[in-house]
Amino acid sequence: MVAVTMKNEILKKYHEGKLAHAFLLETNDLERCYKDVLELVKEINCPFNYSNDCTEECNICTLIDNDNLPSLITINPDGQFIKRDQISELMNKFSTIPVFTKYNVYIINQAHRLNTESANALLKFLEEPEDNILGFYITNNKENVISTIRSRCQLFYNNYDEDVVNVNDEVLIDVKLYLNSIYKNNEDLLYNKTHMSGYYKERTEWEIFFNTMLYYLKDCYSGQRTDKIELVKEVSPDNIIKIILLVEKILKYIRSNGNIDLILDKFVIEMREYYE
Ligand SMILES: [Zn+2]
């Protein structure tokens, strides 16, 4: 996993005493990346032998978990941008050396939302770095991070594996169109017959189609998508889980050489149970 590499790389540098002062982390999953950075901060600061988890009655790790450690500050966009005031407050707090930990650590979530003013305010940290301050800039597109920040950070790519290795956008469009078309449609079986039968020539293409559907539904369930179709907005989370299980079952039928037309009909008939 790339994420593990990022953490290990930074820890290695830490133990060698060659730690950079600021890191730009480009990721496909902002939330997971943020969690990994918190893990890293624990691993650096935990007074016990931290490895993957802290099992001790540990003040530091508990404070980090509760976002109460004074020497750790996370900045999130305030509306559209990260504002200058937020940065000024950060710099005030970090004008003294850390008391309980080795470093003062700041984490900028969505670093591409730093505007010119707030980025300029941060440059002091980056141009005259102090040994006891570490900065993590997390973004999903480093090209959108202001170049004065970008050029002063050590870059890491932090992509996470996804359930489907490559989600093909065209297939995803087909998936959404299909789910929209059969949702609460009394003629769902007819739709299968007229639109879906023979739509893909190869069995492997059907497998990709339902794998993409599986990926999309899981993503919707975990709340990460902004492109939710009516079905996933209206159906209860419990039923979304059941639909996910149904898709997994359908995938098994496809892999075991079942007749595609019959499988599609089975799918729409079972789907009906989950529309409230
Ligand atoms: Zn600990």
Descriptors:
binds zinc ion, five-stranded parallel beta sheet, alpha/beta, 51% helix, elongated, Rossmann fold, 2 domains, 12 helices, 276 residues
Secondary-structure blueprint:
Blueprint: H1 2-15, E1 22-27, H2 30-45, H3 59-65, E2 72-75, H4 84-93, E3 104-109, H5 116-127, E4 133-139, H6 147-150, E5 154-158, H7 169-182, H8 188-196, H9 203-221, H10 230-234, H11 237-255, H12 260-271
Parallel strand pairs: 1-4, 1-5, 2-3, 3-4
Bound molecules: zinc ion (ZN).
The site of zinc ion has 8 residues, from helix 3.
Structural write-up:
- The protein is elongated.
- The chain is built from twelve helices and five strands.
- It folds into two domains: 2-158, Rossmann fold, CATH 3.40.50.300; 169-274.
- It is 51% helix and 10% strand.
- Helix 2 runs antiparallel to helix 3 (59-65).
- Strand 3 (104-109), helix 5 and strand 4 form a beta-alpha-beta unit.
- The model has no long low-confidence stretch (mean pLDDT 89).
- It has a five-stranded parallel beta sheet with strand order 2-3-4-1-5, with helices on both faces.
- With 276 residues, it is α/β, with parallel strands linked by helices.
- It binds zinc ion (ZN).
- Zinc ion is lined by residues 46, 48, 50, 54, 56, 58, 60-61.
The radius of gyration over CA amounts to 24 Å
Span of the ends, CA to CA: 40 Å
Strand order of the largest sheet: 2-3-4-1-5
Bound molecules: zinc ion
CATH architecture of the largest domain: 3-Layer(aba) Sandwich
User: Which CATH class of the largest domain?
Assistant: Alpha Beta
**Would you tell me the structural class of the helices and strands?**
alpha/beta
